[in-house]
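USER: Fancy drafting a protein?

ASSISTANT:
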Amino acid sequence: MTKDSPSIWHRPFLAESVLSRLMNEILADFSDVGFDISPALGRTDVYEKDGDVVYEMELPGVRKDEVEIKVDQGRLTVSGEIKRSGEVKQENYFRIGRRYGRFHRSLPLPSEIADATTISASLSSGILRMSVPLARSIKGRLKPIEIKVE
């Protein structure tokens, strides 16, 4: 590197963390329109087990009192805020790779739910597990679609 090169090139960790943060902010709004472009937080598995649809969402570092779950218009919405520890000043970081701040994920609920008031949730080891009781199984009604090769 020459002395004429941009100062940000002399601190590559800073450049990477600034770019990562900008991309997360730009792509965060796409979750509201049904795209999951920036799954930095809240990556989710959805499966059926024992008559429930289960949503397992990654929320590392989030405490129970920092999460809010709502059901509205056929969607399960999880929101909250991840706060950064105040022990280290931002100017002392070389890289900020974890996501902090407000988050919001909205997931579709199946039409077969038994009763939205019976949805249960638990948070353990950074995984939020939400169980939605079904009136009838979804799995048994799904049929594969044959693809013809021409």
User: Anything to note?
Assistant: Helices lie at 12-28. Confidence is low (pLDDT under 50) at residues 8-15, 33-39.
